[in-house]
Amino acid sequence: MQNREAAEHITESLLAVTKLVTTSVNKINVMNSEGKVSPKEAELYCHSVLDALDKMLTENLIDIFEQHPELRPRCSCREPPEKEKDHD
User: Fold this and answer.
1) What is the pLDDT of residue 80?
2) How many Cα atoms sit within 13 Å of 54 on the Cβ side?
3) How far, CA to CA in Å, does 54 sit from each of 7, 17, 24, 67, 84?
4) Is residue 85 in a domain?
5) pLDDT tens column, 18-58
6) Per the structure, how many domains does the chain have?
């Protein structure tokens, strides 16, 4: 994606979708542990949505991050929790 504004929009959109999908997967895993969803249902759901998400991210973000490395999100896992609070 040559246009930075478009690349930024795509990156923000895909990261928002990622957050939504991972929240959903976590919820289904909790429901599985509570016996509300069968292990087979949980596995099928998690596998299908995570595979689709992986494909969507890979096919779009690799090129964007190569052309616009500044759009790559910082990994907050490298900072101690007390430092993360300073960014709010």
Assistant:
1) 55
2) 6
3) 18, 11, 15, 20, 27
4) no
5) 999 999 999 999 999 999 999 999 999 999 999 999 999 99
6) 1
Residue 42 lies in a domain: yes
| Amino acid type, 34 | E
Give dist(CA 62, CA 58) in Å, integer: 6
Instruction: Determine, yes or no, domain membership for 84.
Output: no
Note the Cα 57 to chain centre separation in Å. 8
Token output for 60: 């779009």
Residue 13 is part of which domain span? 4-74
Q: Kindly state whether residue 67 falls inside one of the protein's structural domains.
A: yes
Mean pLDDT of 68-86: 68
Spatial distance between the Cα atoms of 59 and 62, rounded to a whole number of angstroms: 7
The half-sphere exposure of 42 on its side-chain side, counting CA atoms within 13 A, is 15
